[in-house]
Design brief:
The structure holds 2 protein chains of 2 kinds. Chain A is of the alpha+beta class. Chain A is built from 4 helices and 9 strands, in the order E-E-E-H-E-E-E-E-E-H-H-E-H. In chain A, the strands form 2 sheets. In chain A, strands 1-2-3-9-8-5 form a 6-stranded antiparallel β-sheet. Chain A has a 3-stranded antiparallel β-sheet with strand order 4-6-7. Classes of the chains: A alpha+beta, B alpha+beta. At the A-B interface, strand 4 and strand 6 of A face helix 7 of B.
Chain lengths: ~130, ~350
């Protein structure tokens, strides 16, 4: 489970990942998170333009068995949502770090990204689970 | 310390995700709940249900004890027939919902894992009133279920037994296995009582035939699509079988049984709540405990007891207890889901019928 950790993204303790390119962070949930949830059937997405604070709930992901909040790993404005997920939420299971991305945030405080976990730190966190 | 069924090692070998359930360590899924669910609806799946309680009642008074402690009429059972029944407390609330088999040498009761100890001690307590009623765990045996549209074919083949003539709710003994045409999925299927020493071999025979192993996750979505109750959700000590919609399994015309007075009274004064199916609009999934409101979303009229995403219908589905006068099929209502309200309709409990 921990061997599927790309090192070009940062992780939050709540199991979201953020891939930072310039001022934009693409956000999704980790392999571990989707595996824990099981079959994902619905992702509730925020409206484009919504302002988020780091740690704020921006949506939910529903699996057959349970529901889980999505928390913004960084502050900023939602500039894109993955509309593919409206019809194929299972992309989050199939490709959590790729086609299963959830939102893009234009960061208002890019330094926040430095406080996120590296793949090594996130791996250590998972090993305590 | 969690208990393990005799098939525990098989689940680990198959890479199942294990979870604690009613004191047991059980597989929740092997690969995907939806795929396991669909296997049952389109072919066949095999379930380890060795966590369920198996109780043997023997002696001349076994039938009388069962008649006293369950709501259905077990005197109607011939050898190798079974029936769904409810064990009630004095006020008519459900101690458990059970399946009763009449076998030549004894009666066998299958009860929920979460209630196995409670049912056993209740039966032992009631048995004291009779001279010849021995109650004990049927301890050398465990249970598995093979369910699905192809269940008859795969069980016949794997065990080399002919099942075409076996009727629903009937069973037969083949070698040392009780094969019963019953299930909890809304599909055709069989439940097998197998010696603990033999059950790994039997399980492997089905896996070799390509039967999909299914975990508790699929078991829950399948039973919910079929509208079947699960103790702890649709039943508890304060909920009667009449409220749950199982009046057909309550035979008020048979001799006195525990809970009868309460049920008779409830029938006269009317039910306070009623179990219904609920189909929300939109895609938010109601979950157990969510509050149900009237059409205007103002007044609380009940509670969701189980909710999931239906893999067959591809929509959210739920069961709920509602105030009886608000529980007509077609009635509009709202469900409070995570601080929001979702419009919904009352529907029949059986979301899926084969």
């Amino acid at each position: 489970m921990t061997d599927q950790l790309p090192n070009n993204v940062k992780y939050s303790k709540d199991h979201e990942w953020a891939k930072v390119e310039g001022k934009t962070a693409t956000v999704g949930i980790s392999f571990f998170a989707q595996d824990q949830l099981g079959d994902i059937v619905y992702v509730e997405l925020p409206a484009v333009g919504k302002e988020l604070k780091a740690g704020e709930e921006f949506g939910v992901v529903e699996s057959v068995k349970s529901v889980s909040s999505l928390l913004a790993p960084v502050s900023g404005k939602v500039v894109a949502i993955n509309e593919e997920l409206n019809n194929t939420a299972q992309l989050v299971n199939q490709d959590p770090y790729g086609k299963g991305w959830i939102i893009k945030i234009e960061m208002s405080a890019p330094d926040e990204a430095n406080a996120l976990l590296s793949d090594e730190d996130y791996k250590s966190l998972l090993e305590t689970k | 310390m969690l208990k393990k069924t005799p098939l525990y090692e098989q689940h680990i070998k198959l890479g199942a995700k294990m979870v604690p359930f009613a004191g047991w360590e059980m597989p929740v899924s092997y690969k995907s709940i939806i795929e396991e669910h669909n296997a049952v609806r389109s072919a066949a799946g095999i379930f380890d249900i060795g966590h369920m309680g198996l109780i043997k009642i023997e002696g001349e008074d076994s039938l009388t004890l069962i008649q006293k402690t369950t709501t259905n009429d077990a005197s109607k059972l011939k050898w190798f027939e079974g029936q769904y029944s409810i064990m009630c407390n004095e006020s008519g609330g459900a101690i458990d919902d059970v399946f009763v088999y009449c076998l030549p040498a004894f009666h066998l009761i299958i009860c929920n894992a979460s209630n196995a100890d409670k049912v056993l001690s209740w039966l032992k307590k009631q048995a004291k009133a009779f001279k010849q009623a021995g109650v004990g765990v049927y301890e050398n045996y465990s249970l598995l279920a093979v369910q699905g549209t192809e269940a008859e074919k795969v069980v016949s083949k794997a065990l080399n037994v002919s099942l075409a003539e076996l009727k629903h709710n009937h069973c037969l003994c083949w070698r040392d296995i009780i094969i019963s045409r019953t299930g909890y999925t809304g599909e055709d299927g069989f439940e097998l009582v197998v010696a603990k020493t033999e059950i790994e071999k039997i399980w492997q025979a089905f896996i070799k035939e390509g039967v999909q192993p299914c975990g508790l996750g699929a078991r829950d979505t399948l039973r919910l699509e079929a509208g079947y109750p699960l103790y702890g959700h649709e039943y508890d000590d304060d909920t009667t079988p009449l409220e749950a919609g199982y009046g057909w399994a309550v035979k008020l015309d048979k001799n006195d049984f525990i809970g009868k007075a309460g049920l008779v009274k409830e029938k006269q004064t009317g039910l306070k709540k009623k179990l219904v199916g609920v189909e929300p609009e939109g895609r938010m999934i109601p979950r157990a405990g969510d509050v149900v409101f009237d059409e205007q979303g103002k007044k609380s009229i009940g509670k969701i007891t189980s909710g999931t995403f239906s893999p067959t219908l591809k929509i959210p589905i739920a069961l709920a207890y509602l105030e009886t006068n608000q529980a007509k099929e077609g009635d509009s209502l709202q469900i409070g889901i995570r601080g929001k309200k979702a419009a919904a309709k009352v529907v029949a409990k059986a979301f899926y019928k084969r």
